[in-house]
Amino acid sequence: MAETRIRPARPEEAAALTALAVRAKGHWPYDEALMAVFRRTIVITAGDIAAHCVLVHETGGVADGVAVLIARGGDAELDHLWVDPPAIGRGVGKRLFLAVAERARRAGAARIVLNSDPYAEAFYLRLGAVRIGDHPVAEIPGRVLPRMAFSLGAG
Length: 155
Known about the structure:
155 residues, alpha+beta, Aminopeptidase, 7-stranded mixed sheet, 5 helices, globular
């Protein structure tokens, strides 16, 4: 099996990480109209990488996952967690989530909150998150995402 590692993202990777995120979104059965919106709204910038905790998962030296964590005191916001479709089901998402959870815990957060894609809700539930509400999507009238929280415990 190829070696895996998680490392901080580099600002010059922003476009490649955005492309990975859009590929990941395209794994799900969304029509072209929604994908056009997602291509405009799913963006990881060099500024994001400079300002926040952005982690890249690599397998065999190739980026196959990315997560963006925004520290906000007691709550940390998981802004992005994407796995390249060929790597889905190989533990990449879980490893990335656990890595950002550890970073959030060290930063003093009590929990991670996130807006989940409906297709990813079961993934977050398996990791121990709970649904705490709904998040209406401004760019897509009528679309509501599960709002979720993951307790970081006393640890």
